[in-house]
Specification:
- It is a single chain.
- With about 150 residues, the protein is an alpha+beta fold.
- It is built from six helices and seven strands; from the N terminus they run H-H-H-E-E-E-E-E-E-E-H-H-H.
- The protein is flat, with a radius of gyration of 21 Å.
- The termini are far apart.
- The structure holds zinc ion (2 copies).
Length: about 150
Amino acid sequence: MQRLAILEFLEGTKAHPTADEVYTALHKTYPTIARATVYNTLEALTKAGAILQLTMDQGAARYDADTGPHVHFRCRVCERVYDIDARQQRCLGKEVDGHQVEAMRTYAFGVCVACHKDELAAASETPEGRKKTGTRRSPEKEKGRAS
Ligand SMILES: [Zn+2]
Ligand SMILES: [Zn+2]
């Protein structure tokens, strides 16, 4: 029952929540649910292969009900984790140098679309930021020189 609730919650989100975030969300609907139950269930679901446990850094593990091949991108500003489409999973489920590749973990890091917009907005507001973007070399110029 609780196992199902946790799985359904994960299937309904793309936010890759931590165990704490899963607990906080479920606690609203199931006030009697124990934090330990959430942690143990996430552990059991991970072992059963029903969900993915993401350990991208020293921070808390995150959970993902999407167990298909996809790449995770983490924003270094807000630390949100996004699914991105990157087709570099060609060896998944195949044999590579005699090894049976059963899982692949690829992570991408940078600044997400929301934070990038914030940065651009902040840059255009301050004269200092305007100067910074103004000194950037234009890619068109570079291309023209190369060809
Ligand atoms: Zn961000
Ligand atoms: Zn994911």
